Amino acid sequence: MATAQLYCVCRQPYDVSRFMIECDICKDWFHGSCVEVEEHHAVDIDVYHCPNCDAHHGPSLMKKRRNWHRHDYTEPDDGSKPVQAGTSVFVRELQARTFPSGDEILQQMHGSQVTQRYLERHGFRYPIAVHKMEELGLRLPPPDFSVKDVERYVGGDKVIDVIDVARQADSKMKLSAFVKYYYSPQRPKVLNVISLEFSDTKMSELVVVPDIAQKMSWVENYWPDDSYFPKPFVQKYCLMGVKDSYTDFHIDFGGTSVWYHVLWGEKVFYLIKPTPANLALYEEWSSSPNQSEVFFGEKVDKCYKCVVRQGTTLLIPTGWIHAVLTSQDCMAFGGNFLHNLNIGMQLRCYEMERRLKTPDLFKFPYFEAICWYVAKNLLETLKESRDDNCLPPVYLIKGVKALITALRNWLTPAVKEVVTEPSSEVPDHIRPSHLIKMLTKEIQYLENGNCGSKLMKSQGISACPSTRSAHERRSHARRTARRLRDQDHHHSHSPKAPSNLDIFEQHTQEVLKRLEMGPNEEDASLNLKFNKVSTASAAVAERSLDNDLRLVLCNGRIIRVVCVCVCLKCTGLKLNHICSESATSPSTEEDAIQGMLSMAGLLYSHPSEDPSSSQESWWSRTNRPSPDYSKREHHAKLKHRIQEHKNFMDSQGSGSNSSSEAWSSHTHSPAHGESPTLGYQYCETSLSPPLHPSKRPASNPPPISNQATKGKRPKKGMATAKQRLGKILKLSRHKPFFV
C-alpha cells in the first residue's frame, strides 16, 4: 500500500478535523496550531509565509482594511453596497433604532408560578421573565464566576466554536486561546462564544437547569438509556461574549424552547412572534443571497426589544425568531429543550431547516430519532387515557397528529422539491410502520368518540391534566390503586342498605356453594345449615330492615321468596308485619313473585288454574289476565300462605333429619290446612334455568350424551337465572313490591 503523504513541520498526514494553511511560497500545508496561526486570523492574511520561507522571503503580508460595514473589509468603500449584519457600522445603527417595548409580550412571573401544570393549562406561547432564579429551581455559579474559572473547570485544551461577529463566520479555537483574547488589552476582533456545551465537564456540577426545563424535556423523559444513538446534550451552555457581539435573527435548532440566565453583564433580545406570515418571511429571508444586507426586523409588523440584565432569567417559547446583541461584556448560561406543548411548531421548524439545507452542526442532534422515541411513549399515554376514560389535552392530540404526518414523510419522502433518502435515525427496536398505524388508530378513536362535548360528558370522560413520564405514570398507577382500595374499604363499611337484587345475589352465591358440595360434605353440614338463613344474607338483612326481598332456605335450597319486612333471629325467619298498601298492581306483584319462585324451583298455582297445569312455566302465563282481586283480599291470601309455610318451618325446627321429600309431601297435602287452590308446589331445582318460549327446546328433544354435559358447572346456569331475574324486575327496580 502507498504511504500517506505527510505535511507540516510535524510530518503528519492530513487530518480533516484540524485547521491547516498553505504557504504561498513552498506550497506546503501546515497545521495552524503548529505554526501559531488561529483560524479566525487566517482570513486576514493576504500572503502567507511558513516558518521556513519566512527566513528568506520575510513575514506574511496582511490584508488592508478598506471599509467597516462589509464582511469583506477589503472591498472598496464607494458607498454602493449596503451595511451587513454584525459589522461595527451595523451595531451602531442597531443601537440607534427604536423598537416596541418587550413589556408588551413579556410575561413577568415568579419562578414558583412557572410550573408544568401552569404551562399545560395556559400554554407556552409568550416569553417569560423571572428575576429570582432560586424560585425556578435554577442553580448557577456565583456572580463573580469569571472566564478564567470556566477555563479551570472545562479545560484550556477544549476546542470550542467561536463566531467572528464582524464577518458572521464560525471558526474553532482552543478555550485557552479565547481566554487569552478576552483578557488582552486590545481586542483586534469581536469574538463571541455561544455554543460551549459543558455537560461532560466538571463545570456541569455547578449548574442545575430550571425545573420546568428538566420536567418537560423530551431528552430527559423519553430518551432511553440503551439507545444506539448518543444522547443529545443541549441543556447546559455557557455563553461568553464581549461588547458589541451580535447574533443575527434565527430560530433555535429543532424549534427548541430556550432558557437564558445572565450571570453578569447585559444582553438585548429582539423578538418576533412565530406567526405563519412571519415564519414564511423568515424562510424567504434565510434563503435569500443578500440575507446579511437586510435587517429582518424591518420585514415584519413588529419586532420587540427586550433588555435582560444581570440576575434575570428569560424563557423563550418554540419558534420565536430572535436576534441577540451583547451591549456589554457578558457571561450567560442557557439551554434548549423539546417538549409536548408545541410539537407541531417544533416539527415545522425542523422541516424548514431541511428545506434550507442547514448543516448538521447547527441542527438538533438526532432530532428524528428522538421523535420516534416520543411517538412510542405518546402511544402508551394515549392508551392509558383511553383505559381511564380520560380525554388527552387538545395540544397533545394536535401534536400527535403533526408527529404522525412527519414520521410518514420521513419514511417515504414524497416532496419532489426535496430529494432525500429514507431516515436513518429510526431506532432498531421500533417498528415504524406499525407505530404510525397504532398512533393513527388512537387518534381515530378519539375523533370518533369526541363527536361532541355532550357525548363525552355523558360517558363520564374527563380531560387528562397532562402527559406523564414513565416514572410519573407508575406513580399515578400506584395512587389509582390506593384510591380504589380505599373506596372499596369505604363501601364495605358503608351503612347504605343494599338493593333487593344484591340480597338475592348473596343468597344465590350461598346456594351455588352448597350445590357444588359433595354428598358427604352436605350431610356433615346439614345440622348447621338446616332451616337457617345464610350468614351473609342475614348480616345484610340485619343492616337493612326496610328491604322488601327476602329468601328462605331449607336443606340448602331456596323454598320461599317473599316481599315482606322482617326481623331476623338465629333460629330462622319470624314474620313481623306486611304493609297494607301496594305500589304496583296486583298482577305485577304476583308476576314478580311467581318469577322469583320459578327461579327457586317453586311454582305458584293460581286459584283460577287447574292443578294439573301447575307445572306450566311462568313465562307462558305472564300475558294472561290476572283475577280482579281487591288489594286487601290479595294481601290477606298472600299473608295466609306465608304464615302456613312459616308454621311448617317452625314445626321442622326440632327435627334435624327432615328432608326435601317431607317438605314436598307437606306442600302437596291438603290435610295440613292448606287450601287446594292456594299452594306452592315444590319442583326439583334444575341446573339449567327455565328458557324463554322463543328459546325453549322441542317437546321431545333428542337425548343428550354424557360427554355433552360432562363438566357443566351449575354455577354458570344459576348465574344466568339471576341475570334473567334482573331483567324480569327491571320495570319495577326502583319501586318496592309493598309500601
From TrEMBL:
Family matches, as SUPFAM superfamilies: Clavaminate synthase-like, FYVE/PHD zinc finger
Biased composition (Basic residues): 471-482, 632-643
A Pfam family hit: PHD
Residue ranges, annotated region (Disordered): 462-501, 603-727
Molecular-function annotations in GO: histone H3K27me2/H3K27me3 demethylase activity; histone H3K9 demethylase activity; zinc ion binding
Tree of life domain: Eukaryota
JmjC domain boundaries: 198-354
Subcellular location: Nucleus
Domain PHD-type: 5-56
Keyword terms: Chromatin regulator, Dioxygenase, Iron, Metal-binding, Neurogenesis, Nucleus, Oxidoreductase, Transcription, Transcription regulation, Zinc, Zinc-finger
Low complexity bias (residue ranges): 651-668
A GO CC term assigned to this protein in UniProt: nucleus
InterPro entries: JHD, JHDM1_Histone_Demethylase, JmjC_dom, Zinc_finger_PHD-type_CS, Znf_FYVE_PHD, Znf_PHD, Znf_PHD-finger
Annotated GO biological process: brain development
Keyword Glycosyltransferase (UniProt): no
Ranges of Polar residues composition bias in the record: 610-625
Cofactors named for this entry: Fe(2+)
Assigned protein family: Belongs to the JHDM1 histone demethylase family. JHDM1D subfamily.
Protein's UniProt name: Lysine (K)-specific demethylase 7Ab
